[in-house]
Design goal:
2 helices; 20-stranded parallel beta sheet; 12-stranded parallel beta sheet; mainly beta
Length: about 375
């Protein structure tokens, strides 16, 4: 049975997660109508850019910016202008390349890159150590849209804080986010495509690959989409491969995750890739449970590398109720375990399980 991954240990760094230890050319058309458009040419310090409400900030294509772009005004679009490759924002210290503390903000057409400020000695190699976010959406920031970005080399491509709702993360690429902020014999945390502490957010139509890192405690750690205390999030139609887990869900005191749904996602290995698990959730017998009423519907999961796992739901205790419902999923695990559950599981019907089940009756 798969062991707990990062969510267990995030509780030890809550304070760190919420406060990390994170003009001549016409702008491209904005996603929304804005009263003011400002082009930001190459060489501009992002610390000097202060977007006003109802404005568009356009970074120059072909340029690399460093530092943090902070957005505190509502109804702002950050996009690109000119020709060439999309603008890059690169950060090499803990924090966020884009930090949103306001609402109705759109971030589009950017490449966000983390350069780890430190290293771990793990598996006989130096591995990335740090806590750099691509986009951090702060508590109280509502209804923001992240679209058409790429994010790599980070602790999390996008982090939605507790108290942030109604955000949409779509049509983006999260690749090889491999930073861990904690990595010791007790546990590790990081290597997330998207990290959800907030509730009622939508994560759709993204490509999420290679988000796993060397973990001293577990061998490897990370998730395409990690849920920690967030509820009623919808994760749909994403294409994921070679992430340590497609999703892992956990709770913390005062933040009990419930009602998260996964629909129409495609999850697979990479050629000669590392092991992958589709879904991990837990009951109240675990220190970071319970997680209630997770629903996975019409997902296509093909994980046939040795050591892969399908859906894992464990530590159910009397009184927990339903932890996981699977309906209409295709889970091809080859010779691997397609499903483990020890209570609180509902087979909604229409599932195809290829592989072993524990108990065997769970897949009937």
């Amino acid at each position: 049975m798969t062991r707990l991954r990062a969510a267990i240990f995030i509780t030890t760094i809550i304070g760190v997660v919420l406060a990390p230890t994170a003009y001549c050319l016409a702008a491209t058309p904005a996603r929304h109508s804005k009263a003011q458009v400002t082009n930001v040419p190459c060489g501009t310090k992002l610390s000097t850019v202060n977007p006003a409400a109802n404005s568009t900030i356009a970074l120059q294509r072909g340029c690399t910016y460093t530092g943090t772009l902070a957005i505190s005004a509502n109804n702002v679009t950050v996009s690109a202008y000119g020709t060439g490759s999309v603008p890059v924002i690169k950060l090499s210290q803990n924090g966020a390349t884009v930090d949103i503390s306001s609402s109705d903000v759109t971030i589009e057409n950017l490449s966000l890159v983390g350069v780890a400020p430190g290293t771990w000695n793990c598996g006989g190699k130096k591995t990335p150590a740090g806590q750099i976010y691509g986009v951090k959406i702060e508590s109280g920031a509502l209804s923001n849209t992240i679209t058409g970005i790429s994010a790599t080399g980070l602790y999390a491509g996008v982090y939605v804080a507790a108290g942030s709702t109604g955000n949409v993360i779509e049509n983006s690429t999260f690749t090889n986010n491999t930073e861990l902020s904690t990595n010791n014999s007790s546990g590790s945390s990081g290597a997330f495509g998207v990290l959800l502490w907030g509730s009622s957010n939508i994560i759709q139509d993204n490509t999420i690959t290679g988000n796993q890192a060397c973990s001293i405690a577990f061998g490897h750690d990370g998730s395409a989409v990690e849920v920690f205390g967030g509820s009623h999030n919808v994760v749909s139609d994403n294409d994921a491969a070679n992430d340590n887990a497609f999703t892992e869900l956990g709770s913390y005191p005062g933040g009990i995750a419930t009602g998260n749904t996964y629909t129409g996602n495609t999850v697979s290995d990479a050629p000669a890739g590392l092991t992958v698990t589709f879904l991990i959730t837990r009951g109240s017998g675990d220190p970071d449970g319970p997680v209630y009423n997770t629903v996975a519907t019409d997902n296509t999961v093909t994980l046939t590398n040795s050591g892969d796992e399908g859906a894992v739901s464990y530590d159910w205790q009397k009184g927990d109720g339903t932890l996981l419902t699977l309906t209409g999923n295709y889970l091809n695990l080859g010779q691997n375990q397609a499903l483990y559950e020890d209570g609180g599981y509902v087979n909604g019907g229409g599932n195809t399980f290829i592989g072993t089940c524990n108990p065997s009756s769970a897949c009937n």
